[in-house]
Design goal:
The protein folds into two domains: 241 residues, Aminohydrolase, N-terminal nucleophile (Ntn) domain (Glutamine Phosphoribosylpyrophosphate, subunit 1, domain 1, 4-Layer Sandwich); 343 residues, 3-Layer(aba) Sandwich (Rossmann fold). It contains 18 helices and 27 strands. The chain is globular and about 80 Å long. The protein binds 2-deoxy-2-amino glucitol-6-phosphate (AGP).
C-alpha cells in the first residue's frame, strides 16, 4: 500500500508532487509528506498526519521551492500514523520514500543502532535511509549506495531517493511493490501507479523487480541490481487524465458506478464475434489446444475480485464442463495445495498487484500450472508474471470500493467461459450466440438499471440507514452477488452485513432475522427461482424487512416483499451484471447518508500489497 511519487524537471515540484499524491491517496491516507531539493538550502521536508489537505496547509504555511522532489502518502504498517513516522525519512544527506514492507527490519535496526545511527521513527523505511547513508559516507555515488543498501533488504519495496550530494537526480528501485517511471519533455517522473502521472505524460515504463532507475531531467537510465543495463521502450498509456477526475460527481465511487455502461462497452469492444456466435480469443492469449487440453481451472483472487472469480466456477463448469475451483489467494498461498501441469490458474485482480494473489499465482506457476491474469491495470505485476492476460478495460478505478472493475471482471470471466465452451464443443453455437447478443446489449441494459433504480434505492437507503445488520441472500450466480453486496456495505458504511447462500439460511443464520433486520433477497428468474422465492418467504415469515431484487414484472416476488427492485429479463448468465448494480447504489447511499468517507473508508487501501 502507500503511494510514492517523484519529479525532476524545470517546474516547481511541490504542486506536481501534491497533485500526484492526490491521485494516489486511495492507496493510503494516514499521513503524507514531501522532500524537495531547495536550491542553496539542501533537502527540506514537510510532513503531516491525516489526509493530504493537512500537508497542503503545512505547505501553505511553509512552502517548498525547487524542481526536484519526492512525495508519499502512507498506509501505516510499522509504526502508528504520526508525523515522525510519516515519509519522507531522512538520514544525513539522504531522503527516501518507500512503499512495501522490509521483513528483516528488526535485525537491521539492531545492526544500525549498534553502528551509532540515531533512528527517529518506528518505521522500517527509515532503516533503508540509514543503510544508504552509510554507503554514501564511504564515498559511493547515490546509485551505488542504493544498490549496496538493497542487497541487505528482505521484503517488498518501491523506493525513491534523493541525496543532497547529487541534487540533479532521483534514484528509484523496486521489488514486489509497483513502480512506474514517466518520460516528459525535459522532465522525468515516477509513481506507484499510472493515474498519478496521467496529466503530465502518457509515456511510461513499468519497472521490473530487481531494477534500479536513475531519473534525470532529460533521460532515465534503468539497470539491474548487478548493474547490467536494461533497455525498455516506454508504453503509451491510453487512459486519459479526465478518467481519473470526479467529473462533477460527489464521490469517485458514484462516478464509477455510473461509468459502468461505458466501462463495459470498452471491455466488450472487439471481443464479441456476433457473426460466428463466439468470442474472439486472440486477446485471451491461450491457444485452442490449451482450451481443449485444460484439465481443471483454479481461480485465485481476494475480496471483490474473489466474488467475481466465484461466478467463474458456475460459468466454466456449466458452459465448458471443466472442473473448476475458486480459492481465496490468501488461503491458497503457502498451503502447498495440489496444483500443477494441466491446470489453468486464473488470477483475478483489479490492481494486478495484490500480494496474496501474486504470490499464490507464482506458487501455482512454479508447480507447472499455466497462469491467465484477468486484471485492469496494464503492465502490473500479476499480468507480467502470467502466461496470458485478458485485460478488463474499465479505466482507472479510484474509489476504494470496487464497482466498475467488478462488473467488467464478471464480463471477462463469462466471455472466457464462452470461448472455452466453444473450443471444447460443450456449448452450442445457438446458446453462445444468445449470450453474445445479450452481452452486446449489456451496456444499454446496465444504463437502464442504473437510471431506473437510482431514486428507489436512494429512498430505501434513507429508510434503512440506521439498520445495524443487513443480510443479503442469493443462490447460484446470485450467491457471489449477495457476498459482494454485503462487502460493499461493510467497507464504506461500516454497517454489519452478511451475504449467505439462501439455501444455507435454515442451517443457522435464520436465527438472526427479526423485524429490525433488512434482508436483501436476490431472486431473478433463473434456474433457482422457485427455491429462492421459498427462502424469501421464510425470511418474511420471521418478520424480516424484505427488499427483493427480481426480474421485471415478477408479481410473486412483489407480493412477498416489502420493496421490489426490478431488473430486465436477461439470460441467467448475465443476471449478476445487473443485480449487483442496485446493491452498489444501496451501499453508496447508506454511506453517504451516514457521512462516511466513501472513497477512502477507514482502515482500507485500494491496493493491498502487504501480508
Ligand atoms: C473491493 O471493494 C475491495 N476494496 C477489495 O476487496 C479488493 O477487491 C481486493 O483487495 C482485491 O483487490 P484486487 O482486485 O486489486 O486484487
Amino acid at each position: 500500500m502507500c503511494g510514492i511519487v517523484g519529479y525532476i524537471g524545470s517546474q516547481p515540484s511541490a504542486p506536481i508532487l501534491l497533485d500526484g499524491l492526490r491521485r494516489l491517496e486511495y492507496r493510503g491516507y494516514d499521513s503524507a509528506g514531501l522532500a524537495v531539493q531547495v536550491p542553496g538550502a539542501g533537502i527540506e521536508i514537510r510532513r503531516a498526519v491525516g489526509k493530504l489537505r493537512n500537508l497542503e496547509s503545512a505547505l501553505r504555511e511553509r512552502p517548498l521551492d525547487g524542481s526536484v522532489g519526492i512525495g508519499h502518502t502512507r498506509w501505516a504498517t510499522h509504526g502508528r500514523p504520526s508525523e515522525v513516522n510519516a515519509h519522507p525519512h531522512v538520514a544525513g544527506p539522504i531522503a527516501l520514500v518507500h512503499n512495501g514492507i522490509i521483513e528483516n527490519h528488526l535485525e537491521l535496526r539492531r545492526r544500525l543502532e549498534g553502528r551509532g545511527c540515531a533512528i527517529a521513527s518506528d518505521t522500517d523505511t527509515e532503516l533503508v535511509a540509514h543503510l544508504i547513508q552509510l554507503e554514501v559516507a564511504q564515498g559511493k555515488s547515490l546509485e551505488d549506495a542504493v544498490r549496496g543498501a538493497l542487497a541487505e533488504l528482505q521484503g517488498a519495496y518501491a523506493i525513491a531517493v534523493l541525496s543532497e550530494k547529487e541534487p540533479e537526480r532521483i534514484v528509484v528501485a523496486k521489488h514486489s511493490s509497483p513502480l512506474v517511471v514517466g518520460l516528459g519533455e525535459g522532465e522525468s517522473f515516477c509513481a506507484s501507479d499510472i493515474p498519478a502521472l496521467l496529466p503530465y505524460t502518457r509515456d511510461m515504463i513499468f519497472l521490473e523487480d530487481g531494477e534500479v532507475a536513475v531519473l534525470e531531467r532529460d533521460r532515465i537510465r534503468i539497470s539491474k541490481l548487478d548493474g547490467t543495463a536494461v533497455e525498455r521502450a516506454p508504453r503509451r498509456i491510453d487512459w486519459s487524465p479526465v478518467m481519473a477526475e470526479k467529473a462533477g460527481y460527489k464521490h469517485f465511487m458514484l462516478k464509477e458506478i455510473f461509468e459502468q455502461p461505458r466501462a463495459m462497452e470498452d471491455t466488450l469492444r472487439g471481443r464479441l464475434d456476433r457473426e460466428a456466435r463466439d468470442i474472439h480469443g486472440h486477446e485471451i492469449g491461450l491457444s485452442d489446444d490449451d482450451a481443449r487440453t485444460v484439465r481443471r481451472v483454479v481461480l485465485l483472487a481476494c475480496g471483490t475480485s474473489h466474488h467475481a472469480a466465484m461466478t467463474g466456477r458456475y460459468h466454466i463448469e456449466a458452459l465448458a464442463r471443466v472442473p473448476t475451483v475458486v480459492e481465496l489467494a490468501s488461503e491458497f498461498r503457502g498451503r502447498d495445495g495440489v496444483v500443477g501441469e494441466g491446470d489453468l490458474v486464473i488470477a483475478v485482480s483489479q490492481s494486478g498487484e495484490t500480494l496474496d494473489t501474486l504470490v499464490a499465482a507464482k506458487e501455482a506457476k512454479a508447480k507447472g500450472a499455466k497462469v491467465l491474469a484477468i486484471a485492469n491495470v496494464i503492465g502490473s505485476a500479476i499480468p507480467r508474471m502470467s502466461d496470458a492476460v485478458f485485460y478488463t478495460h474499465a479505466g482507472p478505478e479510484i474509489g476504494v470500493a470496487s464497482t466498475k472493475c467488478f462488473t467488467t471482471q464478471l464480463a471477462n470471466i463469462l466471455m472466457f467461459a464462452i470461448w472455452l465452451g466453444r473450443r471444447r464443443d460443450t456449448l452450442s453455437a445457438d446458446r453462445a450466440g444468445a449470450l453474445v447478443e445479450a452481452l452486446a446489449r449489456l451496456p444499454h441494459t446496465m444504463q437502464d438499471v442504473l437510471t431506473g433504480t437510482r431514486q428507489l434505492v436512494a429512498n430505501l437507503a434513507r429508510r434503512y440507514v440506521d439498520a445495524r445488520d443487513v443480510l443479503y441472500l442469493g443462490r447460484g450466480l446470485s450467491f457471489p452477488i449477495a457476498l459482494e453486496g454485503a462487502l460493499k456495505l461493510k467497507e464504506i458504511s461500516y454497517v454489519h452485513a452478511e451475504g449467505y447462500a439462501a439455501g444455507e439460511m435454515k442451517h443457522g443464520p435464520i436465527a438472526l432475522i427479526d423485524s429490525h433486520v433488512p434482508v436483501i433477497c436476490l431472486v431473478p428468474r433463473d434456474s433457482h427461482y422457485d427455491r429462492s422465492l421459498s427462502n424469501l418467504q421464510e425470511a418474511k415469515a420471521r418478520e424480516a424487512r424484505v427488499i427483493s431484487v427480481a426480474t421485471e414484472g415478477d408479481e410473486a416476488a412483489r407480493t412477498f416483499s416489502d420493496d421490489l427492485i426490478e431488473v430486465p429479463d436477461v439470460p441467467e448468465e448475465l443476471t449478476p451484471l445487473l443485480t449487483v448494480l442496485p446493491l452498489q447504489l444501496y451501499a453508496y447511499y447508506v454511506a453517504d447518508y451516514k457521512g462516511t468517507d466513501v472513497d477512502q473508508p477507514r482502515n482500507l487501501a485500494k491496493t493491498v500489497t502487504v501480508e
